[in-house]
Structures are given as C-alpha cells and as structure tokens.
# Entry
Amino acid sequence: MDSYLVQIGLPVIALVVSLVAFLWEFVVIRRKRLGYRVQMDTPVTGEIESVFPGVLEQLQPGGNAADKNLQDLSIVLIRVENDGVTSIDSDDYAMPDDTGLHLHFPNRRVAGMAVTELSDTVLGDYLEPGRGIAARADETHDIGIIDLPKVPMNRRDHYKILAILARGATAGDYPEPTLHGKLKGGRVRTTQSRTGLTRNMLAFIGFLVIVIVVQFGIALFGSNPPVQGCVPGQLTLVGSSAFEPVIRDAATEYRKTCPAANFAYAFEGSERGLATVDKQGHGNPDLLAITDGPKSVGYPDLRQRPLAMAVFSVIVHSDPVVRDLSTRQIQDLFEGRITNWKTLGGPDLPVRLVNRAFGSGTRETFQQRLLGGRSVTLPEDTCRALQVTNPPGVHACEVPLTGDMLEAVAAIPGAVGYSSYQEAAGYRGVTAVTIDGHAPTRDEVLAHDYAFWGVEYAYSNGELPPDSLAAAFLRFLTDGAGKDVIRTHGGTPCGELADPAECSPVRPS
# Structure
C-alpha cells in the first residue's frame, strides 16, 4: 500500500470512525436510555447483621407480609438512572397502565422494600405509595416483582430501591435481578459504574492507538510521500560557470523533497552550453543550458526562459589601493588608455587585464553594460606568463571559467577582471570595487544605480514536456523554493521585479 495513501487515509478513517462512534453512542444508543445496576445483593441472617440496621421496620410490606416464616433473607440495592443524553417523560414509558418498570427477582419473593436515595427530591413525589409502586409475586414462575411508576427523569437523575427478599419455592442459586420495561425511542439496559472505562470506550481508544502507531511507523521507516512538483529522473545542466553555484544549491534543495531526481553538471561557459543543447537537446528534455544573458545568433530552435537578475562586479587584485572606479575609468582600463594604477591613485603597477574567453556570458554582459557593446582587443598572453614575466605596459590574458578568473586576479599583482559578485565576495586576494560610487548589491541594481548586472536564462531545445524533470525544476526556480536560493546568492527572481520586461531576452544596444 502506498504510504502516502495510508498517511492520508488513516486519519480520514479515524475521523469517520470517531464521528460514527459519537453519533452511535450519544445520538442512537444513548439518546434515550434507562439504566439500572445492582449495587448490593447480600444475604442476612437477622436484623443485627443487616447492612442497614433499623431499615427493616421502615420497609413497605409486599407479597405475603403476614408470613412470619421468612427464610434465607437477602438485601438487594438497585440503582435506576437516566443513562441517556435526553430527558425521559412519563409519556416515554410504553407500558399500558400506570406502571413504568418491573423489577424481577427470580427464585425470591419481596418481603419489603423502600426508596433509599433520590438525586432530586421531586422524584419522591412519583415514588410514594399509591402512585404505582408496589410489590407482588408471580407464583407460577417463582418471581418476586416490584412495580415502579412512570417517573419523569432528567439526564443523570437516579433513585435507588432497597428490597428485603426471602427464598421462594425454587431451590438453588439466585439469578441476578433484572429490570423490565420499554421506552418509546429508547431502551432499558444494565449499566456499570462510571469509575472505569466501558468496553466500547476501550475498543475505541485501542483503535486510535493503532492509527497513531501505524502513522508513526510510516513516518519513521516508510518512504517519503511524493510532493507536489516532484518529478523523478535525470537532468543535465550545462552553461554559465557564474551561475553554477546557484543551480547546484537549488538542485540540492529540490532533491530534499524529491530524492528520486538526479542532476549532472557541465558548466563550461554560456556559449558552449548553448552549443551542447543545440546539438544534443533535440528530443531530449533532460538537457538544459544556463546562460549569463540572452543567446547569441545561430540558435533558432532554443527556447529561452528568464530566471533571475544577477549582480556582477569588477574585481581587482587586493594590493592596488583602488576601491572605486567610474564607468569611464573601467572603459579606459580595458581599452588600454590607462596602463598604470598610479594614474588612478594606486601603486606604481602596470595594469593586467583578465578577460573571460569569447562565448562567455559574463564577458558579453560586461561588454554590453560597461563598455557600450565594444569588444576588448589588446595584446594577449597567458595569465601564467603575465604572472611570471611581468612585462612592462598594459597586457591582457583570457580565462575560460569564473573560477579561473578569480584565481588569476588573485595571483597577478595589478590585475583587474570581472565575475559574479557573490563568487568574488568570498574569494581571498580579490576585491570587488564600487562603480560610480555604488556597491554591487541587489538593492542598488533594483534602484537602477548600479550598472553591472545581467539576466540569467535557461534554454532547452524546443518546448519541454510539462511532466519532465526539466520543466519541474524550472518551475521550482521561478515559482517554488528555488527563488529563496536565488535570493541567497544575491540575485532577484524575474517574477519579483517591478518591471518584468527587464528580464526580456533582448540585447542592449
């Protein structure tokens, strides 16, 4: 049985059973009910041994009161009570005459009787002699009988009958006294002391305990129930290394509620990710590319989905004492017009430009947002050669991934580059500068004061089946808990922007 159905079904069953039990107990069975119980049935050998000394003189005579040869006496105390949930009126008794109930004492006859306790003194008015209370004998069946009147009783009202009984003509043990009668829309039955739990109550409690134990066992040992949006399968994610940490963390969160979903990664740059999905993604919904910015030309079959606005930063080697750059100064640096940091008030160090390789979404975003769309064309060398040879004048090198960018800027004195801000913020040896006096934060971007930001997109080859893991994971990123992961990394989900058009995949001019 599916554990999810069990976890849902058992509480529903328990609720239905509880409701039925309540209705059965208090509406059907106990709606109108007269109960009785024998509280004492003990033999006595004389007045001295009576549990109630002196009461024999008060008993109303019944049966053959003139008979002085009473043998084998016993005292019986019986409680008659309204055990239902509604009142009982005189008209509710179904007997044809003034008598409402009959107490039967098989194999014994009534020598005397008395009313010994009333829950309400008003009840005594209905139990006086002449109102229907009397003792008699059924000689044919050897049964002593006490007739009781039609006493109206509110809920929980009760009275008690004390009877002195003598052995009848039949030898042997005495059967239990019984109360006979009929109620309209109700019944007469034996009851028990309320100090303990009834069998019905014990059975009901046992049922609830079983439900709780089963649910606890499922929660402890059973498999996790499927959750809304959980789709099992395998999904490969390729593309932007700048957005890789966000995607990895989001996938980890997704698997917490959907452990049957598995993810593989190949973040080697936005352009390479687009090319991979273009070549291998046709008819394959298990492949997605994540890019920094919109796709380049040449990918007509790829369908884009905006994910988030991401914050990028210009980063410098920690040694130059330069903490703020204007947009114009950044352009002058990357176009070779500033060759030494002392021009900007920093140390006497030649400028080393570190670029991402062509095809990088981060490089494309940098050129569009800060360089006015112009491409960087300067003499290039390997970053290792720049570090070792330290040639004079401005020089540049290229790196393929975000991690390589951070490593190169941290290792080369005088280096300047760019990367996602969240990755740079925690990297030793690298400092993210402010641009035009504005810090690389989400609030500055949303206020349109910080210029270096971009939009992250997901691309598939054609439309995705709605029941695919790729479609479910994208819904998780845009409409589910994945948005929390994006915000944790400093981004802003596109759906939360005041102007969603800012996530439109259109290249800035």
